[in-house]
Amino acid sequence: MLSVPGNSDSLANATHRVCVAPMMDYTDRHFRYLLRLMTRHTRLYTEMVTSGAILHGQRDRFLAFHPAEHPVALQLGGSDPEELAACARIGAAYGYDEINLNVGCPSDRVQSGRFGACLMAEPALVAECVSAMIAACSMPVTVKTRIGIDHRDSYEELQEFVARIARAGCRTVIVHARKAWLQGLSPKQNREIPPLRYDVVRRLKADFPSLEIIINGGIRALDEMEHHLDGLDGVMIGREACSNPYLFADVDRRFFDSSVAVPSRQDIVNAYIPYVVSQLKAGIPLARLTRHLLGLYQGQPGARRWRRALSEWGHQPDAGVGMLTDALTLVPDAA
Known about the structure:
Order of helices and strands: HEHEHHEHEHHEHEHHEHEHHHHHH
Largest sheet: 8 strands, parallel
Helix content: 40-55%
Number of strands: 8
Radius of gyration: 20 Å
């Protein structure tokens, strides 16, 4: 059975060589814990948390995490420098390894709060926010952005945007290699319709060699990661991590330590079970814990039976952790 990794300075200070993107309604602490059973070195991100939720809401609900999740970054949404500085200070006190500012989400709800991708139109404000956050905490402050918005998608504008936040002290920029349309496309469409421009991200690295440039967008396989790591500082994987989490079982061996053993899917489920037990005792519904396992057997014999069992059994009022061991009997490698 896999053992749960503990925190260590070497892991907490790991680079951004491989990251999992912050994704609303998905990269919660349960998903992050599951991924940590597959990869010790991949940098994980929270869902975006607004500054208002932290300052005026239930902080533990949004910020609490398991020590095994390190290295883990807190992504903030907001545009008020003082509020973001306060949140960065709070995030540092909770023990996060990095504070990230969202300048890439294009949803209407995010725009109405004046944060996300719409902030690309206000580079001076973003720089002010970054500067305030850096002054407020000792954690690295990073920015996740797009290559442009609407018709403001020239390379010159992107170059000036990155230059401003670099002058403010940001040393790591995560770039989703698509522009965002702020009107007319849903967030899902904004992840699919605007064309990927990996060449733009590489040009940024050439123009800002001292910055850590991480590429994001449409990356789905280890070979693609390796290709992007030739010339760039890191890769960030988004939706593929949700639909095919087992992709990360081989990340550590491939990119960090060739001596690491690759866990089987059954190993991962068995290691996740004690965590599920602890969370059930804390009142977390089983379905919230098992939904992150749905894609574990993607592409494998029995994958459909596995998904159906978790979906149907996990929502039953009397469902317990035994349903996971029962579900394992439906897939060949564990039967």
